[in-house]
Design a protein that fits this description.
This protein is of the alpha/beta class. The protein contains 20 helices and 25 strands. It has an 8-stranded antiparallel beta sheet with strand order 3-2-4-1-10-9-11-15, covered by helices on one side. Strands 5-6-7-8-12-13-14 form a 7-stranded antiparallel beta sheet. Strands 17-16-18-19-20 form a 5-stranded parallel beta sheet, sandwiched between helices. Bound molecules: 5-amino-5-deoxy-1-O-phosphono-D-mannitol.
Amino acid sequence: MCGIVGVITAEGGVGEVLSKALKRLEYRGYDSVGVATVNENRIYIKKDKGKIDEVNERLDLTDVPGLIGIGHTRWATHGIPSKINSHPHCDCENRIAVVHNGIIENYSGLKERLTRNGHKFVSETDTEVVPHLIEEKLNNGLNTFTAILETVKELKGSYAIAVLIADYPDRIYVARNESPLVIGVKDKSYVFCASDIPAFLPITNQVIFLYDGEVAELSLNGVAIRNLNGEIINREILEMDLTPEMAKKGGFPHFMLKEIFEQPKALKNTLRIDEGRLIEVCKILNECDRIIFTSAGTSFYAGLCGKYFLANLSRTRSEAVISSEFDEVMKNIIDERTTVVAISQSGETSDTISAAKYAKRLGAKIISISNTVGSSLTRLADATIYTQAGPEIGVAATKTFLVQLGALSLISCKLAEFKAVINRDEYKKLLNDLNSLPEIIQLILDKTEREVKASTEAYHNSISFLYLGRGINSAVAMEGALKLKEIAYIHAEGYAAGESKHGPIALINQGFPVVFVAPIDSTHNKIIGNIMEMKARGARIISVIEEEDKEIQLISDTVFRIPKATDNFFKQIVYIVPLQLFAYYMAVRKGLDPDKPRNLAKAVTVA
Ligand code: M6R
C-alpha cells in the first residue's frame, strides 16, 4: 500500500501542495518519497529513501518548478527501500514519469519483453514497466490517451497510477484497478488525484470517484473519464462531508476497524505471492530435517496455525516456539539441518530477530515471513515471503494475522505439491479454496458486524473470558483472546478446548462467558461435548459457527455466523474475523481507544 497524489494548479506552489498532500498520505507507507513536476517541457524529479520530513530536509521537495506534479510515498513491495526504487519512475528518455500504488503481477514478463526491445531499466520495481510501456506505445504513433489505455490493458494485478508527460505540461493521466484513486476538483484553480481524500481535503471536498477499469485525463479544463473500451463515462462531482482525521481513516472511527475491513483486499494481494518465491522457500523446507516456527504475540499464533497446515497438508512435522523462549528451548537442537521460519509483521521485533540470529549462528537456514520489505529480520533471512497487508497503524494486529495465515497456507500447499503429497489438480483445488476466502470474509464483514456489536450489550461487564477451540481452531481462539485482552483490557485466556477440563474449568461459575471457535470440521462433535461441559457449570456460551449449524446454535447464548464453506480446506482462517470485531466493539463500548492500547507498542524492539 503506497500513497499517490497528483496536482494541477493555476495558483503556483505545486511543490508545497504535493509535500503537504504526501504528508497526509504518509499513513499509507513511509519507506521513501518522491515528486515529479513538468516545467518548460522538461520533467524534474526529487526522490529519496526515508520519511517525508527527512527527505524534505535533505532535498526540499517544495522547491520544484512548474504548475503540475505527481508524488508518491512508498510502502515497499518490489525492491528494498532505496533512492533508485523510489517513485516516480521514468521511461528511457525521462519524458514520462509515473507513480503507482499496487502490485503489477505480470511485470517480469513485460520487463523481459521491453528489455529485449532495447528499454533500459534502473530499479527493481514492478512500476517501472509502466513508463516504458507508455513510451513504447507513443513511439508506435499512438496518441497519449490511447497509449495510456493500451498500456493499462497490458497490466495484470492491482494499480492506481498517475502519469506526467513532458510534452503535455497541462494534464495528468490516471488509471485504476483494485487500488484506490479519487479525483478532487476546485473551480478552475485545482485538480487533484490521490489514493485517499485527505490528501487534498484542506483545499477541496469536491470529489469524483474513479472506478476499476477506468482511465481519466485531468486538466484545469475538466476531467475526461473513459472505460477500457474507450467509451466516455459521465460521473458526477460529490461533496464530501468529512473531517481530515475521519477521511484518513477512510470514514471509519478507528484504524483498527478500517484494517479489519481491509482484510479481503489484504488477503487477495497476499495470495498473489510469486510462485517462484514459494518454490525457493519450499526447496529449503524440503531439504532440512527440522522446521521450527518462531515469533511473538499474534505472529506466534500464526506460527501455530503454520504447524497445523504443514502437518495436515504436506505431512511435514514442525514445531512452534515463542521467540523469547527460543534459545532456552532450542539450545541443543539447532544445527545446519534446521530451518527456522521467523514470522514478524514488522520484521523488527527484537525477540524474533534474536531467535533468528541465534539459530543462524548455529548454522540453521532462516526463512522470514514479514509485512515489511527490507526490515531487519528479512535482511538476515536466507529467503523471505512478503505478506501484502500494507501498513497497519492500529497496535492490535488484525489484517496482518490473516495475511500471515494466507502466506503459510500457500507455502504448505506448495510444499505438499513439491513432496508429491498432492497432485497438480489437488493443488489447484486448494488454491481455489484459498482464493475464495476474501469473498467469504467480505460476507462476514457485511453480515456479522451488526450482531457482534449488539452482543457487547450482554458481555461488557464481564471481567474474564475463556476462548476455546480444537486443532487449528485453538490457535484462532488464542488470537481472539489476545485481541480482547490487549484492547479491551479484559482478562481472556485462549486454550485448547480438550485441555480446559484439566484446570480452566475451575474458573467457570454462573454467567462466565466462554467463546467457542466451532466450525463444522473434524473437531465438531468433540467441541459440542466441551460446550456441554461448560454449560453444565453455568457458563454463557458465545459460539462462532457455520451459519447452518443449528446444533451448536441451540446450545449457545450468542452466535456469530460464518457463511457455509463445507469443502473449503482453509475455512477456519476466517473465524478470527468476528473475534476481532468483538474485541473492537468491547473496547469501544468501554470508552477505550482501540488504536492505542496502553503499555503496548506496534513493534516491540526491546528484548
Ligand atoms: O511485528 P511482529 O509480528 O513481530 O509483532 C509481534 C507482536 O508484538 C504483535 O503481534 C503483538 O502481539 C500485537 N500487539 C498483537 O496484536
